[in-house]
């Protein structure tokens, strides 16, 4: 029998001792599950307490409880501004549309506005608003003659004034306002307007801009010259009448007629 050396036996003992000690160190320490389970179960069964919150105000409660607008009603509501606009417009009195001579005059007045103002307030030309046309021309015939012929024709004919020579504030002279000239409007006098267009222009100035009362003091004149049924306007338009064929008008410059009976006797 072979004898094992002592140093080998010692080495073997040391290795076994080292292995036993490492097993004792690395072995996990058992945790008693019986003590953990009741704690976890108690935590799970404990109800979670909610934080106290401030109650909603009456306005918020009302807003939350208010019935929502149906989607189908939104289209109708979106049209409400249009309905409101149409309703308000319907309450406003509608101005009657101009016709006859007045309608023609409205179309032609744009060329006069540069001198006399869009509302007749004046500028390079005389004021036409606030009854000024009636003061200067008590008779529409004189105004037609002046608008047709203009300043240069009056001066060439030696006619010193136009309209009513007894006008309040004194007679008006061809260049007495700013030294400017009134351009002739008649087509045969160098202007661009026909005689029926001049009549329409004068009617618009007298009754729309200057403010003559077509249903009052000036009703007779309006009916004869400026109404939609005016036979004079219709005759000028179709050529059966002319300024030269109308008493008191004419195309040649002339003095104004301060008295109505002068026109009637012409």
Produce a short descriptive summary.
This protein is mainly α and 266 residues long. Helix content is 52%, strand content 0%.
Instruction: Give the C-alpha Rg.
Output: 53 Å
Shape: elongated
Annotated CATH topology of the domain at 100-265? Cytochrome Bc1 Complex, Chain D, domain 2
Number of helices: 13
Mean pLDDT: 82
End-to-end Cα distance: 180 Å
> Major β-sheet, in short?
none
Low-pLDDT runs: 260-264
Instruction: Assign the CATH architecture of the domain at 100-265.
Output: Orthogonal Bundle
Q: What string gives the helices and strands in order?
A: HHHHHHHHHHHHH
The CATH class assignment of the domain at 100-265 is: Mainly Alpha
Helix content: 40-55%
Strands, count: 0
**Structural class by helix and strand composition:** mainly alpha
Percent of residues in β-strands: under 5%
Describe the fold and architecture.
It contains 13 helices and no strands. It has about 270 residues and is an all-alpha fold. It has a domain of about 170 residues: Cytochrome Bc1 Complex, Chain D, domain 2 (Orthogonal Bundle), CATH 1.10.760. α10 packs antiparallel against α12. It is elongated, with a radius of gyration of 53 Å. The N and C termini lie far apart (about 180 Å).
What key attributes describe this structure?
Cytochrome Bc1 Complex, Chain D, domain 2; mainly alpha; 266 residues; elongated
How are the SSEs ordered, and which strands pair?
Blueprint: H1 6-26, H2 33-45, H3 58-65, H4 71-78, H5 80-91, H6 100-108, H7 110-116, H8 132-136, H9 140-157, H10 195-209, H11 219-226, H12 231-238, H13 260-265
């Amino acid at each position: 029998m072979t004898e094992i050396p002592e140093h080998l036996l010692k080495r073997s003992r040391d290795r076994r001792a080292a292995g036993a000690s490492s097993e004792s160190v690395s072995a996990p320490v058992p945790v008693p599950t019986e003590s953990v389970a009741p704690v976890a179960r108690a935590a799970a069964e404990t109800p979670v307490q909610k934080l106290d919150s401030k109650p909603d105000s009456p306005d918020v409660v009302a807003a939350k409880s208010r019935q929502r607008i149906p989607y189908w009603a939104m289209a109708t509501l979106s049209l409400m501004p249009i309905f409101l606009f149409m309703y308000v417009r319907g309450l406003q009195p509608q101005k009657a549309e101009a016709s006859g001579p007045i309608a023609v005059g409205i179309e032609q007045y744009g060329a006069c506005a540069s001198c006399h103002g869009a509302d007749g307030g004046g500028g390079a030309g005389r004021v036409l608003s606030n009854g000024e046309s009636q003061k200067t021309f008590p008779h529409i015939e004189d105004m037609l003659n002046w608008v047709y012929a203009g300043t240069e024709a009056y001066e060439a004919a030696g006619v010193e004034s136009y309209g009513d020579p007894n006008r309040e504030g004194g007679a008006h002279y061809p260049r007495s306002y700013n030294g400017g000239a009134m351009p002739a409007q008649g087509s045969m006098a160098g202007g661009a307007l026909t005689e029926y267009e001049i009549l329409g222009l004068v009617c618009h100035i007298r009754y729309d801009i200057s403010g003559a009362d077509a249903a009052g003091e000036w009703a007779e004149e309006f009916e004869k010259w400026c109404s939609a049924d005016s036979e004079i306007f219709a005759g000028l338009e179709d050529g059966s009448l002319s300024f030269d064929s109308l008493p008191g008008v004419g195309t040649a410059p002339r003095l104004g007629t301060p008295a109505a009976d002068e026109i009637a006797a012409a």
